[in-house]
Amino acid sequence: MKRFELVAVLAASVVCSAARAEDSVTIGVHASFSGAGAAFAEGMLAATDFAAEDVNKDGGLEVAGKRYKILIKQYDDRYRAADAVTAMDRLMIQDGIHFVVGPMGSAAAVATKDQTTSGKVITMTLAFTPRALGADAPFAYRPVITTGEFSDPQVAWLAKNTAAKQVVSLLPNDETGQQIGVANFNSYAKAGAKLQVEYFERERVDFVPILTRILMKADGLELGGNSPTTAGLILKQARELGYRGPVFVTGGDVAAEMLKVAGKDAAEGTYVHLPIDTSLPDTAAYVTRFKAKYGQNMNGFSPFFYAGLQMLFTAMKKAATVDDTTKIATTLDGLSDVPTAMGKAGWTGQQKYGIKHQIDLPFYVGQIKDGVVTKVATCDVNACR
Amino acid sequence: MSMDIILAQTVVNGLMVGMIYVLMAIGFTMVFGIMRIVNFAHGEFYMVGAFLFAILYGSNGMPFAVSVLLAIGATALLGLLMERIVFRRFRGNELNGMIASVGVALILQNSALLLWGSSARTVPPVLSGVLSVGGIVFPWSRLVVIIGAIVAVVLLNLLIGHTRIGRAMRAVAQDAEIAQVQGIRVDVIFPAAFVLGVSLAAFAGVLMAPVLSVSPFIGLAPTLKAFVIVVIGGLGSVPGAVVGGLLIGLIESFAGTFVSASLSEILQFLVVIGVVLLRPQGLLGRKEREA
To answer: Which residues form the signal peptide (chain A) (predicted)?
Structure first.
């Protein structure tokens, strides 16, 4: 009898644990938690954490009459393509995950594209390279606005408002830096200005030798495409060398971190890409929530990933499945005007990337004045006003 | 800007970076010369020193001199602890010691990440503004680095060349067993050398904190540079570290200013390859004796 009871208890526990496993969906976070881009990675993780928290506090994500608890599994790719492939393998094979927030860097996105496509894993990348999206990657989405979207309208607005004609730019010598360099060069040419791009190895922290040379004939300094820390260091060192011309950061959300690194005086007057509008109540609430939980200023990309996950969860509900990623992706493609923390969002990019997997939201130009970023223009892919 | 001014500016830039490399490389090469350990955790002590200074001086507004002493002192204590727990067991065991040092580096870096977060910190400059001489701009923050590093190297030279413990260190570096036979307490000299090396790294971190920024990841690049420099100058050679550090600093500055940043990295490694091929013991290193 005792043996029978033991078997029954074991069988019940197996059934219970199987049921528990079935009632959860795990979201992988694949980003560079170590290195200069760690602030981006933490923003991505926080967005996933908040999205999971919100769903779980209501009893889970209701899909086809069942409720699924959202779990999170994270891996660090250390900003290296080889490590990115290993991390993605672990997420897909070891953990059996179908949904990934990441990859973060362009090199990582390109390196893992074949893996995630063949494994039908839905990814939400931060990679700025145009190669991150395409008809050959039907499961890759980008919930952030990239250089490809904001470069032309922002540069046109900056060239018109500052009269800079000879602009120099410093960018890391990797996939991300080179893609941004080409995009920025073309945007400045269209705006009637010349951009000289200088590449450096990502580990570099002393830019004075390069700045000594390139600032001699420049009337503008472009720092878009650098990590917040690097942008701040370059700005600080350029000001130390006596450069007083305009500084543009037409990429990323670097303002808060750059201000910390460069200091208020060096950053004064700098034009920055502003990905979010904190006058929107939901966006402001997200910013406050981040600050309250993590005790530091939020990286501006974070709410985009939260919005991307809101869209993903909406697609899961509509597709009535948490397993069939083909069906979920097809449903996700068809979503438009989805209410998110960033306003109503949809997808764009058919013409540019051959697939509508680029998030469609407005963006802004800000200027640092007395240590505070003020919105000076609102933009879409056509123009800034 | 005329060519003379650019040249002078380039030399100053090279000297500043070179002097920091010198401080890093001296500590690195001392630990190798005396303990025969290639300490890849050396840059993490630079990071810890910079962080402590950023907290004391930058965040808590403590007086500069007190912050410097406390930051170096606390890092030295951490170094002593690491020597006791880890490095002591690997004296003379170059391969295992090197692997252990990589482990210590990862532990220190990730501990800093957990303790202080990934966000970069800035430290207000000790002296702000620029010194302009005949059109050449010298940021005061960088001049402080050069002066501080020169003072440290001179003091170290006096310590090694003219004190009892310095002479003991040189004797142990030459032959630990013979030194012990002569009555030198090698069990004291080993940790003393390690702590001195760590203190130099911490001082380099303190000097650079106001010029650059401070984050848990700043230690790797100086470690790699220190390694390159001691290969050029000669493993275990303090004068070699000085020559190698200044050489790399100037190459970096001249190549970065007149050619390109990427080429400056290539040039440094070409110099390393050239030295290894033509003079394997380094510019000022001694040949290992055949058994």
So the answer is: 1-21
Q: Tokens standing for A124?
A: 């939400």
Q: Do B117 and A228 touch (CB under 8 A)?
A: no
- DSSP label of A125: -
Each residue's pLDDT tens digit, B21-73:
998 899 899 888 888 888 999 999 999 999 999 999 988 999 999 999 999 99
Domain covering A147-274+364-379 in this structure, CATH number:
3.40.50.2300
Examine the pLDDT at A209 and tell me if it is beyond 60: yes
- Sort strands A247-249 and A271-274 into parallel, antiparallel or unpaired: parallel
Residues of A with Cβ-Cβ distance to B137 under 8 angstroms? 241-242
Total structural domains within chain B: 1
Residue at B81: amino acid letter: L
**Pairwise CB contact (< 8 Å): B217 & A261:** no
Is the N-terminal amide bond of A209 cis, ω within 30° of 0? no
A186-199 confidence digits (pLDDT tens): 999 999 999 999 99
Nearest to B223 by CA among A237, A78, A203, A76: A203
Residue B1 lies in a domain: no
How distant is the Cα of A316 from the closest Cα of chain B, in angstroms?
34
Provide the domain limits for residue B76.
20-218
Cα separation, A242 vs B52, in Å, equals 30
Fold for A2-145+280-348, please state it. Rossmann fold (3.40.50)
Model's pTM, two decimal places?
0.72
Residue A171: closest CA among chain B residues belongs to which residue? B261
Q: How far apart are CA A234 and CA A239, in angstroms?
A: 9
Phi and psi angles of residue B223, each rounded to the nearest 5 degrees, phi first = -65, -45
Pairing of strands A220-222, A247-249: parallel
Of A326, A374, A300, the residue nearest A126 (C-alpha): A300
- How far apart (Å, rounded) are the C-alpha atoms in residues A264 and A259? 6
CB B213 within 8 A of CB B51: no
The answer to whether residue B242 sits within a structural domain is no
Ranking A8-12, A66-70, B18-22, B239-243 by mean pLDDT, the lowest is A8-12
CB A364 within 8 Å of CB A358 = no
- Whole-number Cα distances in Å, B55 to A108, A232, B48: 34, 19, 11
ipTM: 0.76
Is the minimum CB–CB distance between B212 and chain A shorter than 8 Å?
yes
Which of A243, A199, A200, A238 has the alpha carbon at shortest distance from A219? A243
Chain A residues near residue B209 by CB distance under 8 angstroms:
none
